[in-house]
Amino acid sequence: MRTDGDSWDITTSVGSTALFVAAARALAAREPDPLAVDPFAEVFVRAAGREWVELLEDKNPEHPLFDPNFGIPFRLFQAARTRYFDAYFREAVAAGVRQVVILAAGLDSRAYRLPWPDGTVIYELDRPQVLEFKRETLSAHGDKPLAQRREVAADLREDWRKALRDSGFDPSQPTAWLIEGLVIYLPAAAVDQLYTDIEQVSAPGSRVAIEQMEQLSEAARAVFTGNPDDSAEARTEWFQLIYNDQRTDAAQWFADRGWHADHIDLSDYIRAQGRSLPDPTPGTPQISDLVSLVTVVRP
Predict the structure, then answer these.
(1) 54: which of 29, 46, 101, 180 lies 20 to 30 Å off by Cα?
(2) Predicted confidence band at 281 (pLDDT cuts at 50, 70, 90)?
(3) What is the pTM of this model?
(4) What does the entry give for GO biological process (predicted)?
């Protein structure tokens, strides 16, 4: 259960969700014609311990990521959003943006795998334990970032903008911001404040990509956390980590302040990539129907 001022590393609380997502990306990359391939996802998972290694070696078939009603759709969800945000960054640098900020970076490996132009600086914000795990894991694997990568050890519940500026961030330059897998772990008021903080340090030409998830209704919550299947326990644990608040729609929030906004439901995005969604189990909400992807650009 979340509490004010709670803390975590890569294997506990909110931090462990980064490993779960990395495992989903690793498994999705093994599927025929995957939507996205993150070769570093498996590196992170193998570095996390035997339990996670066994997952990759098919020695843990009861794991929620193998559940047909939850794990398989979740893998598709992770691959799709990875593809969307990869494309977002490619478009940003094509437009001349050379300053990138990844909030709650977790095990994001884009600094190591995307083709960044010379002069690109990537700021990754997260808790120091998470940043340390990523740096040491990839260094031990012999990997180096493909752009200038700067770690910013900061808690988004505190004055992260000062920590960002102290690391060299220039608010007069256009920035490509990423908010992936973050919004649901913040209360609604904190999300609005986060958007305000970003707008205040975003020069013209800046852009923000956001993954957002609808509030679960009481009926959906009961189904989502209570089905007596192999993934029920994992879903319940996850629900205890999020804030199931009604939040401001990001596209509308930024559009009201003069930004150009594009919004697509995740299910529609998956279909646009030529992929079919799994047949839903009656009475079970599909995560892709709850998630939408937003990109906003400041003129």
Answers:
(1) 180
(2) low
(3) 0.89
(4) methylation
Instruction: Give 162: exposed, middle or buried? Use CB within 10 Å, 0-12, 13-18, 19+.
Output: exposed
CA distance 106 to 180: 10
Q: Which CATH class is domain 95-298?
A: alpha beta
Q: Tens of pLDDT along 254-278?
A: 999 999 999 999 999 999 999 998 7
Q: With b meaning 16 or more CB within 10 Å and e meaning fewer, what string describes 140-150? A: eeebebbbbbb
Amino acid at 193: Q
**C-alpha dist (Å) from residue 280 to 68, 70, 285, 286:** 10, 10, 8, 7
Residue with the two structure tokens 């339990």: 51
Asked if 244 contacts 215 with a C-beta cutoff of 8 angstroms, the reply is yes
pLDDT exceeding 70 applies to what percent of the chain?
83
**Residue 95 and residue 105: Cα distance in Å, rounded?**
23
What are the residues facing 148 on neighbouring strands? Answer: 121
173: left (phi over 0), alpha (psi -120 to 50) or beta: beta
Among residues 39, 94, 249, 116, which one has the least CA distance to residue 102?
116
Distance of CA 53 to the CA centre of its chain: 22
How many angstroms separate the CA atoms of 293 and 270, rounded?
A: 11
